[in-house]
Every structure is written in C-alpha cells, then in structure tokens.
Amino acid sequence: MGITKLADLIRSDAQDSISYKEIEDYTGKVIALDTSIVMNQFRTAVPNLKYLSPLTGLFFRTLTFLEHDIKPVFVFDGKPPKQKKAVLEKRAQNAGWTSPQRSSTMSQRTQDCIRLLELIGVPCIKAPGDGEALCAHLVKSGVVDAVASEDMDTLAFGGTILLRQLNAKRDSEVTEYSLPKLLEALQLTHKEFVDLCILLGCDYCDKICGLGPRRALKLIQEHRTIEEVVLNVNRKTHPIPLEWRYQEARRLFLDTPQVDRPVLTWQELDEEGLVRFLCHEKHVKEQRVRGRIEKFRSSLQDRRRQREEDKKVGRVKQTRLEQFFRVTRKRQAQSAAQEKKFDLLSDLGGDIFAAPPSQTAGSSNFANFAHFNRPTAQSNSNTDFANFDSFGNSSVPSTHFGTTHPSQSIPQPLHTGGGVTVPSLSSMAPAPTQSSKTGEDRYAALAELDSVLSSTAPTGSTQQGNVFGAVSGPTAAQTQPGLSSIQQGFAAAPSTNPFVAAGMAPEPMSTNPFQTNSRASATEMSDCLRVLWFPFVDNPALFGTGSMSMPAGFGNPTSYCMPTSFSGTFQQPFPGQSPFPPPAAYPQQPNGTGFPAYGQAKPPMTSYGQAIPGPGMSNNPFMGGAPSGPYPTGGSSTNPFL
DNA sequence: GATGTCC
DNA sequence: TCTTCTGGCTCAAGACATC
DNA sequence: TGAGCCTGAAGAC
C-alpha cells in the first residue's frame, strides 16, 4: 500500500518538507479524509469489534475534529482502477477473502458510515476512482486545505499538503508533508517525482527488483525519467519486470480525476438521529453517545471562548518568539529530555563540545532557524493553507500541481504550447550522463525505446533537448513572476516573523481571498470561497456566531472579510510596523438564502479555470451520478524494455 | 498515567 | 570496505472511562 | 497491515 519506503526517503533526504504539529493547528481548516483508511484504522485497532469499531471510531474522531473547528470532508473510494486489481487481489488473498472487498457497489458498512456522517452533518464525497486521487485533487485545487491520510500515494497524486497521524489522541503529533517543499528538496518536478514513486514501488505496477530508495532517487535525479533510468541501470542485476505497465501508473498519478467541484456544507449534528442509529440500530450504549455529544458541545464552546480570549491578547502573544516556532508537546518532551542530558553534562563539568545552551531547551523551536530568511520556512501553524492561487491559474497544466508553493527554486516544468512539459533549467542541473554501457547494448535499448516513444505519450525525456531551443509555452522568465507572487502571498510565516522584514512581501499576507492581489480574480476566488466559507457565513448558527474570529470589518456592509483562522493571530502588525491597510471594500455578496443564486452566476469551474459541464456536485454525491471512467483507460501499454 | 472496556 | 537492498521478525494499530 | 529493526547478501566504489 502506498509508496514503498517513500516516508523513509523523505525523512532522510527532504527533512524540511516535514513539519510536526498538533491538531489545534488545523483549527478552521477544511481537511479531506480518505475514509477507507480511517475505517481500516479502527477496524484493525479493535479487531474484536470488527464491525462496530469503524462506526464508533468515526463518530468519536469526527466530533473531535469538529470540536477543534476543523471541517472534515470524507472521501470514499469509488471503483478502483484496473491497474490496482493485482494488488487488491493479493490483499484479498492474504485476508482470506474470495474476491476483493472493494468494489463499485457500496458495502453495508460504507453505507452505515455515510449515514453516520450525514447525521453528524459533515459532507461526504464519493470518488470516481481511488479516494487518494480525489483527495489530492481537492487539495491541489484549493477546495480543501489538506488531506489527512496514512497513504503516501497522496503526494504522488499531487496532494500539496498531506497530514499523517491526524487523530484524536491528546498527545498525538500530526506529521505534515509539503509536496512543494519536498520537490524542492529533492530537486525534482512533480512528474519526475511520480517516476521516482513508481521506481520505489506503488500499487499500480511492479518495480525494478534490486532498486531501492537510494539508488532510485539518485537515478531519477541524474536521468529524470524512467525511460532514461532504464537505459542507465545494469539490467542483469536490475531486471525490468515483465509486462511493466509503468506508463499506466504514471498516467494514473498525473491525470486529474474527472469530477465536478463539490459544494461542501457542514450542518448541525442530529443528536436524536444519531442516538436512533447508533444506539437503537447498532446497539451502542446510549450513555456513550449522548455523553460524547454533550462533551462535544461544551468543548466546542470552551475552545471558542478560549480562542476569543486568545485573540484579545493576541497582539501581546504575537511578539513572543514561541509563536513563530510551534513545538508539539511530544517534541517539547523530547527537548526537555535533551536538556536534561545537557544538564547531566554540566554536572560533570560541562561538555565543551556541546552546542550552546540556547539550542537545547528549544532545539525543536530553533530547528528551523536556518530558514528564517527563507520564504519557504513555514513553522507557523496557519501558514501552509488556503491555496486559493490555484484558481484561475489556467496556464498551469492540469497534470501538475496547481498550487505551486512558495519557492522559486522549485523546478517548474515549462509548459509548451503542445501540452508537453519539459524540465526547467534547474532540473537540468545534473546533465544526463552518458551511459558507460557497451555501445551495442545501449543502441539496442535506444532503438527499442525510440519505437516505443514514437507511439506513446511524450515524456520529459523526449523534450529535454528543447530546453535550449524554442519553446512555445511560457518561458522561465514568464513563469517566475507568478511564482514570486505566490511566494509573497503564501509567505505568511515570514509575515509574522519580525526577523525577515526585509524579505517580506510588500503587501500583507492577505487571508481575505477577496482582496485583490493579482493572484486570482475575484470571481475565481469567490467561486472557491463559496465552497469553503459560505456554509458558515451563510448560516452562522451552524457553527455559532460569536465563535469565529473575524478580521475587523466583518459584518460591515461595505466590506466583506472572510473569517481567517480561528486563532486570531493573523495580520498583526509588528512593533514599529505600520498597521496593515484595511482590506479593500467589496460589494456585499448575497448572504443567507440569497447565496445559492450567487453560485449560479458562473458555471462551475475546475481548479484551473476550465468550465465543467453540468451542475456542481451535490453534498451527497451518492445520490448523484459521479462521472464514470475517472481515468482515461487508453490502450494497454506494453513493456518497451523487453 | 496505566489499565480495562467498548459489543 | 562501505553502501544498499531484501527478507524475516516483532509490535502497534482507536477512543473513552475508571482507577 | 504497515512500520521499524535487524540480518545477511549483493553491488558499488
């Protein structure tokens, strides 16, 4: 399941793309969850409650999310792609089933989960294919802020922010992976990263035997594509699998699921409905259910009150250094232990080779110090999200993540007029080395490859020679300003970091997506915001009125500021800094019942600005027909290397 | 915080 | 000689209530 | 079921 050893590889080679946070840090965020993985977790955690555990687990965990004002979106798997058949059959075999349990028809358990989630009032979406693919699509197109999954596939599918271990345990630490930072660290484009994932081993095709993560990364960094890698490995020691369908796997990862933009709404939970369903039908103890709901309500109120109070003192807190370097409880404990170790050394007369004391107690805090003046440094909890920029960026090819994050040094594929991507100059850095193979072998392989490539989809390798030639798409110079603006816009961490004033964006980081900042048009923004925020704005009763932190100006008929985060720590000027200018005034959008009409003013758009035929997806996608055939099936590919 | 229980 | 890969083994895997 | 650890085997330098 997932990508073999990818987590290890990231830990060792792209540490900066990982950050550790707490569940509180996701307050106010919309998070897509791959429901099948969540259900599996509960099923395996309590094996003797195989059936009920996913239901009760989902119930408890969802309420925990809602308590933190996290807005979950549950994504269910659709029909698995045919390329996954082998893996599913193998799993079924291991589990002692006669056939894969995962099918296009919904199991009773899935139906129960959907019913439960509807009663809780959170939206569910059925993916046309793999849930992971849709989750990734949702986050890269800005519909949600992050994907919570244990499956590393999400990154290969282009999910820009992946959260692992997002559960309700008090001391649990959420691991956040940032795809843009990962690509930057590995010096790969997304397409090259997908090839790397295929070499590591994924669910959709075999891998090259004997090629582990270290060599796979090195080879991809050197040769950029699987086709080139294959020409440069010892095929005696690393034989190419028979019927290797890597091209289909690549297409699965790169293709965007064909779905309409979902309209997400969160509603008040139906306590009586939940009691009827869980207690009367499923025989869960009523006391457990009612007790948890009561705790949920009081906890929600308490947290909101607390946030209001925090907001009041936020200006004071803002200047505290700890605000810039979040330390999770777990890491704090580790740091404390480390401090103790140094104390022991000092008891022994001090360790003259030890780091200065400031690096002990807060070592986790200061781990990112090196990035202080790097706009990509994102230690602040509220900074990686709201990738509204992807909207309206019609020039971004759909096969690449639209929410290019923060760094100009991310190797950006240049988009040619013909829809072909070529590596950026930075990706050319290690020039493809000539193989040391014997001439005969190489020429034979090249001949094979040539015949294959002439009849299959173009790859990066086929275009490498064009980098220095005429490219009809935007040039690197044209691309950079866009990146630059993204960088400024997303540099929320620097904006709260007094030490990087020089590198700060000229305009304050706007958390008001209606604010004109040239990153996306107001219409496109509003299209997105309707999904993200209006369920709350539209009906404040759903999530309480006095609880959300609104920037100044909210409720003012002449200005329309969206709720920022719930922490209330955004957009605070630093001492000595002039106050941020008030958000630009926007004509008031229809509120309340008038809002749906607003959404009809414009046909639904994909994240990249292409109009989608047909209406937006219903909140209950199981009622509406999701487009079938999520992935272009194409002709079956043969193994060009055999 | 450790342990037992959830059905 | 060092690095990398493979395969085998073990263990934890959820959330709440009570003490 | 996956992750982590350990081991021996094999390849790379």
TrEMBL record:
Organism: Chanos chanos
Example GO molecular function: magnesium ion binding
Keyword list, A-Z: DNA damage, DNA repair, DNA replication, Endonuclease, Exonuclease, Hydrolase, Magnesium, Metal-binding, Mitochondrion, Nuclease, Nucleus, Phosphoprotein
One Pfam family from the record: XPG_N
Compositionally biased tracts (Polar residues): 397-411, 423-437, 455-466
Function: Structure-specific nuclease with 5'-flap endonuclease and 5'-3' exonuclease activities involved in DNA replication and repair. During DNA replication, cleaves the 5'-overhanging flap structure that is generated by displacement synthesis when DNA polymerase encounters the 5'-end of a downstream Okazaki fragment. It enters the flap from the 5'-end and then tracks to cleave the flap base, leaving a nick for ligation. Also involved in the long patch base excision repair (LP-BER) pathway, by cleaving within the apurinic/apyrimidinic (AP) site-terminated flap.
SUPFAM superfamilies hit by this protein: 5' to 3' exonuclease, C-terminal subdomain, PIN domain-like
InterPro entries with a match to the protein in the record: 5-3_exonuclease_C_sf, HhH2, PIN-like_dom_sf, XPG-I_dom, XPG/Rad2, XPG_CS, XPG_DNA_repair_N
Origin superkingdom: Eukaryota
Cofactor(s) recorded in Swiss-Prot or TrEMBL: Mg(2+)
Protein name, UniProt field: Probable flap endonuclease 1 homolog
Annotated ranges, domain XPG-I: 118-188
Positions of transmembrane segments: none
Family from the record: Belongs to the XPG/RAD2 endonuclease family. FEN1 subfamily.
Region (Disordered): 397-440, 455-482, 618-642
Limits of the XPG N-terminal domain: 1-95
GO cellular component: nucleus
